Amino acid sequence: MRYVKRTVMLSEGEVVRLHRPTFGVEGETYGLIARTTQLDARLAPSVFGLGLLEAISDQDILAGADPKDRDGDGISGRAAIVDGAIGRIGWKAGQSRIADQNVKALSLDIGIGNRRHAALWGGCTAAQTKCRDGPHGGSSRHDGLAGVAEDTATARGWRTALLWGIGLTQAVSGHAFYLHDDRARGLTEVVLWHGGEAQPARNRFAALAKRHRDALLVFLTSL
After folding, report:
1. Domain for residue 144, yes or no?
2. 173 lies in which domain range?
3. What's 20's DSSP letter?
4. Within a domain: residue 134?
5. Total number of domains constituting the chain
6. Residue 28: inside a domain, yes or no?
7. Residue by residue, what is the 3-state secondary structure of 50-76?
């Protein structure tokens, strides 16, 4: 893993240095990985209040959707539809229930099969016989992270992150890194990585007097 660095200037001369991770594989043990293989990291998302998120009715989520930005605020929030249900769990709201997220992650992330999702070979090639013989076992989205859209083909459709409990990240997770691939080292960097529809809000944050930026960060960590 390597980092591509860039510097962002905020008002009153404050400097923030952003780090975008890039990934590669060297010294493959079980054969070469195809050149078309996409590599990206995923930070385990926080689980604060997911039961409450699951309890929100579909009608309330749909009522808050604004895919054509009819209110003119620049944000075209849209509900994710997953197998006919409203998606609300995961980085891209790809699952409608916590149970669905869990059983799919068991299969895709660590290769444990279950009644709903068969175990996969974990990306093994034909040469990876040792790997294949291993124990594999039987809410709304928005275009607000254009700054990270280069990483995956569908990176512009992220679920709007929950803010409740964000001040407990350090205590619960043992770190204060954010966004899907750990690239943001603090809440200021979270804001600065935003683009697309969130670019105006990001610019307003950067232009705030430093005391006002600091006050906003204190508020966020109190949640």
Report:
1. yes
2. 2-93+139-221
3. E
4. no
5. 1
6. yes
7. HHHHHHCCHHHHHHHCCCCCCCCCCCC
Dump the DSSP string for 153-192.
Answer: TTTT-EEPPP-TTGGGHHHHHSS--BSTTS-B-SHHHHHH
Residue whose C-alpha is closest to residue 43's, from 16, 21, 18, 68: 21
Q: Which residues contact 209 (CB under 8 A, 6 or more apart)?
A: 11, 12
Q: Is residue 6 part of a domain?
A: yes
φ, ψ at 25 (rounded to 5°): -125, 130
Could you give the C-alpha distances from 74 to 57, 79, 85, 144, in angstroms and in order?
25, 16, 26, 10
155-176 pLDDT, tens digit per residue, is 457 777 778 888 888 888 888 8
Task: Give the tens place of pLDDT for each residue, 4-60.
Answer: 999 999 999 999 999 998 888 888 887 888 878 877 778 877 777 888 888 888 999
